[in-house]
Every structure is written in structure tokens, then in C-alpha cells.
Amino acid sequence: MIMSARRIFTSAGRFFHFQLQTEMGIIQFPSLLFTNYFHSSTSMHVPEDAKSQRFLRSKFKDVDDALASFNHIILMRPLPSIAQFCRFLSALVGMKQYHTVISLCRTIESLGISHSVYSLSILINCFCRLHLVNFGFSIMGKFIKFGLEPNTVTFTTLINGLCIDGKINGAVDLFNDMVSGGYQPNVHTYNVIVNALCKSGKTNVAIKLLKGMGERGCEPDVVTYNAIMDALCKDKLIIEALNLFSQMRNKCISPSVITYNCLIQGICNLGKWNQALALLKEMAGQNISPSIFTLNILIDNLCKEGLVSKAQAIMKIMIQKGVKPDVVTYNSLMDGFCLCNQMDEATKLFDQMVSGGIANVCSYNILINGYCKSRKIDEATKLFDEMLKTSVVPNTVTYTTFIKGLWEAGRPGNALEVFKSMCSYGQQPNVITFSTILNGLCKQGNLDEALTLFKAMEKVG
Predict the structure, then answer these.
(1) Which domains does the chain have, with CATH numbers?
(2) In this structure, are residues 132 and 26 in contact, taking their beta carbons and an 8 Å threshold?
(3) How do residues 227-237 score in pLDDT, each as one tens digit?
(4) Each residue of 37-51: pLDDT tens digit?
(5) For FRET with 4, which of 31, 79, 258, 440 sits at 20 to 30 Å CA-CA?
């Protein structure tokens, strides 16, 4: 199998071009790897002090705690085995301390401890997570050179690294080479490829891969189906997604909350909220608890349909089920009140959000827009002025919404003042902002001023 691995790595060179010289400035090339291959004892005296125990359990409060345990344990004799170091390194990977892991691998090597397949796979994963998949492949080359046998996890890690960098064709080629080289991909390998294909718009290819999984002796799981159903729903192919959902259940694969969220979002996007509510009831029948994301999908879509009372009813049910609304939930509900011109209810909800400390820039934007649409420009002005006194910084949407409201309310002077203050505060006007100002100036007959602004727009690009 080592010969197969060497052939796969050589084949990978067809699509993968190293750029090591460019990346040398980011991380030093791991040339010191594999220099010492003296095994530490696999059976070691178990120290009883707290730092050593934390190292062996690989449970740390933070990265500083982990490093303190590491620095302590390397002074012990005999040293921990490579398996114990791997558990420690995995804990750091869980903290996303990829640079730290790469650095500590050097320290471990300097102690005379040889790498294992698992430790090298961890190292490859760190390079891939840092978008340095080139270095991941360089470790693969050393892997083969020293006679170590890569496994499915090793290849899956490299495939995932290519997918992270958007090199989907390269990932597919490596996957095919892996299979032809006699390595059996597992469900995680397939999920990495399927997810990448779906995100890159190649859902049909992902479906073909799904169909071929059983023939290759690997059954798909709920993660595989979720990736494809999500892609189909985003493409508004709801019937196809529901057919795949039925196929999944016929195979006795239990759906997850993510499954239902994908379907509910897709169905809501088509305005079929009754079907979405039916899926919500089905979730309850399956003893699957809805998440905050489920709640937000339903609330947002019901509010956009003007069904605010139904949205409120669902929110109460969700709260009873232990799902706590967040700022997205409240913003959607407030937007619903504004769309239905229930400004008193919107204001009341906004005040609750402010007192609860969860109002964000989107919350202000929604209420300012609601006031402007309902021709309550004085309330919009008051809220905008209050916003300037808070820690919530107005963005381009805030200014554009308010400027448009002022123009429509017949206050062009105020609109231009806000526009000037927007620029002075470093907020970049967008096309809608400029269009609003130009439209207002032209309607006023200020063509020279409009032309000057238009030329300024051209310079900005």
C-alpha cells in the first residue's frame, strides 16, 4: 500500500502546484521533521501532580493552561508516548491553535519521539486549516519517504484542505486516485467531497457520488443527505429535496434538526409557509427539538407574509419548548410590525431590546425604516439622533434609509446635511445612497449640483 500511496502522491502533482517559496514567509518549511526516530516508552509512570494529570486527560481551561501542562510534562521521565502527545495536540486543534500545534511538533521531535500516522495527520490538518495545503502535501511526501503507511484519515484531511482552498477539481482527483490506489474512503471522506461539490454549485455531481456510495461499500449518513438537500433547497428544487428526504427515511436514516431547517427554509423561500408549519409539527412527532435557527426561519417568513400574530404564537410555543429568542428573532418580529404599520408594537419591542442590551444596528435600521415608511419622520430623526449617542454605529444602510426618508418627507436640506455627515464619519455611500440624492436633486431642478455629484461618483467608482 505504501507504493500505492507514493503513486497517489505523484499523481496529485498533476493538478497541485507547490508554491513553497511564496509561503516560506508565512511559516518556516518543516525541514526538521522526521529527523529523530527514537521511541519513548509506551508504558510510563503516571504522575499525580495536577499539570501532568491535565496533560494526560487533555482537558484545559485555555491555551495558556495547555502550554503550561506541556512545558511541565516534557521535563518528566519517561516521556509520554506519541499517542498521549496526539491527544494533547488534538485538544489544541479543538482550540484552533494551528500555529501552536505546528511549533510544538518540532519540540516533540527534538525530544526524540517518532511520529505516528495519527500525529502526521494532525500536522497535515493544521497546515490545511491555515490554507497552507502545499505544506500538507509536503508532509505527505515525507510520510511516504520514511515508510509510514497513510490511511483514509490522512487522505481525507488533504482532500478537505483542497476543498477549504476552493480547489474542488483537485480534491475530486485526489479522491479518485485514493480509491484507485486501494484506499477505502469512509463516510467522512464522502461528506467532505459532497459538501464541497454542493457549495461550488455542482449538486448533480454530488448526487451521482451519493448514488455510488453503496456500490463502494460505504453507506451515506444524515450529513451526506443534509448537504445535498440544502443545496437543492437553495436552488429552489424543493420537490427534488423532498424526494431525497423520503429516500433517506426509507433507508432508516433519522433526520436531524439541520435536515428540517434546510427543508423549512427552502419551503418558506417559496412562500409555502403552511407546508413549513407542517414540517414543524412533524419535527415534534419525531421528538426533534427545533433550534433557534428553526424559530428564526419561521418567524422571519411569517412576518414577511404579514402574519405577525401567527409568528408571535409560534414564538410563544418555542419559548415553552426552551428555545430562547435572540436578536435575529426580535428583529424579524419588529420588521413584521413595521410592515403591518403597527409602529406602536414595533417601538415597544425595540424598547425591550434596548433595555435588554441586545439591540444592534439592524434593529435601529428596521425601526428607522418603519418610521420613514409610515411618514413619521420626526420619530425617525429622534431615533437617529439617539443612535449617535450610543455605542451602536450607524452604517451605510442606516444613513441611506434615513436620507431617503427625509427626501420623501420634503426635507431635502436635512437629507443633504445627513449625507455630508455620513461622508465625514467615514461611511461609504453606496449606489442606492447616490441614486437617492441624485433623484432628489433632479426633482428639485438642481441639475448642476446633481451633475457635480454624478462626476464625483464616477471618480469614486
Answers:
(1) 1-16+60-184 (1.25.40.10), 185-271 (1.25.40.10), 380-460 (1.25.40.10)
(2) yes
(3) 999 999 999 99
(4) 333 434 444 445 666
(5) 31
